[in-house]
């Protein structure tokens, strides 16, 4: 192998030694933080009043530990493909700063701690549903779907959509219709959230050999699907109002946020521009955060 070929295939080297920050990074803290926001709001909507501090603290801690563990496993399973993509090549396992074994041990500790907390301090239903979400993301999505089909996100997104239900069951110990509605909202949101980023990073996914929708079916097809999912998202977000779960404040907020999302999707379909794709991805995060905050404001306004 020539020196140039070696340089191209080598793992990115790192001069920095391992630190606690690497372990924190492995847990995808910003993604988990948004999941916890949706779990907290699930708890607050489920409770007749305000849930007890113990459910709030232990429920969210347990869910966060298991979600973090799932993210760590994702780094281990994806080590090779993370090394190929510019967005992920500096990750702790991809660079080798954290070994696969250490990462797996870390994931095991997080998962065991999370399960014990949920089992002993919350309830078994929440513990098993959270574990199922971990398996859904780390096992079904990462290990299998991500590499197998361009519909990976449309199916695998269910795992990431679970936190509001997990929050709800932590309080009520029951799976109820309104909680499933919140799951449905995140489930419909996930494809536009991710496909916008996949368009922006299409070349990298192609290089890594991952069959993301823009790679297999092109940008225009993906943009059309983003638009269709955004319509569906807008329709699904009207259900909390239609079923009497939320009031007019929510309806106004959800409609305004959804119309703005549609505006991004239409711009994307018209312009096919990488920068618009990135802006759409960023908006998707603001959108979900704002939508759940509006749900909560509405809940306490009519309370
Ligand atoms: C299987 C479903 C999902 C897929 C495939 C997906 C994909 C992604 C990807 C690839 C990124 C970029 C990460 C990076 O640059 O390191 C990202 C970022 C993000 N995702 Fe998702 N996502 C999913 C579900 C969710 C869910 C359910 C939430 C929250 C409820 C969420 C919240 C976020 C946030 C907050 C970021 C920004 C993270 C940052 O700034 O570092 N995602 N997502
Ligand atoms: C217990 C529970 C609630 C589990 C949910 C786990 C969890 C952290 C889901 C995150 C969703 C996500 C960021 C997917 C991206 O994975 P990717 O591999 O497509 O993206 P990447 O290339 O950035 O790693």
TrEMBL record:
Keywords: Cell membrane, Heme biosynthesis, Membrane, Transferase, Transmembrane, Transmembrane helix. Its EC number is 2.5.1.141. One of its GO terms (cellular component) is plasma membrane. Its main location: membrane. Pathway: Porphyrin-containing compound metabolism; heme O biosynthesis; heme O from protoheme: step 1/1. It is found in: Cell membrane. The keyword Hydrolase does not apply. Belongs to the UbiA prenyltransferase family. Protoheme IX farnesyltransferase subfamily. This is Protoheme IX farnesyltransferase. The gene is cyoE.
């Amino acid at each position: 192998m020539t020196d140039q070929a070696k340089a191209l295939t080598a793992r990115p080297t790192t001069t920095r030694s391992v630190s606690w920050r690497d372990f924190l990074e492995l847990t995808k803290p910003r993604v988990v933080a948004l999941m916890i926001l949706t779990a907290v709001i699930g708890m607050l909507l489920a409770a007749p009043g305000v849930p007890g501090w113990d459910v709030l603290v232990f429920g969210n801690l347990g869910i966060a530990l298991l979600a973090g563990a799932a993210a760590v496993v994702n780094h281990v399973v994806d080590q090779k493909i993370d090394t190929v993509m510019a967005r992920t090549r500096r990750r702790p396992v991809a660079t080798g700063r954290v070994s696969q074994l250490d990462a797996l041990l870390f994931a095991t500790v997080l998962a065991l701690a999370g399960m014990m907390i949920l089992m002993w301090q919350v309830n078994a239903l929440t513990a098993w549903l959270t574990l199922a979400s971990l398996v859904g993301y780390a096992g079904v999505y990462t290990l299998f779907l991500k590499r197998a089909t361009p519909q990976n996100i449309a199916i695998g997104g269910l795992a990431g959509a679970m936190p509001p239900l997990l929050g709800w069951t932590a309080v009520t110990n029951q799976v109820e219709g309104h909680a499933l509605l919140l799951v449905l909202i995140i489930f419909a949101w996930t494809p536009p959230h991710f496909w916008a980023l996949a368009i922006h990073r299409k070349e990298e996914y192609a290089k890594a050999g991952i069959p993301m929708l823009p790679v297999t079916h092109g940008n225009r097809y993906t943009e059309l699907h983003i638009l269709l999912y955004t319509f569906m998202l807008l329709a699904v977000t009207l259900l909390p109002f239609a079923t009497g779960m939320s009031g007019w404040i929510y309806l106004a907020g959800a409609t305004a946020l959804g119309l703005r999302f549609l505006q991004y999707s239409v711009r994307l379909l018209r312009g096919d521009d990488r920068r618009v794709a990135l802006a759409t991805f960023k908006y998707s995060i603001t959108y979900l955060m704002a939508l759940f905050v509006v749900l909560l404001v509405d809940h306490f306004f009519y309370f």
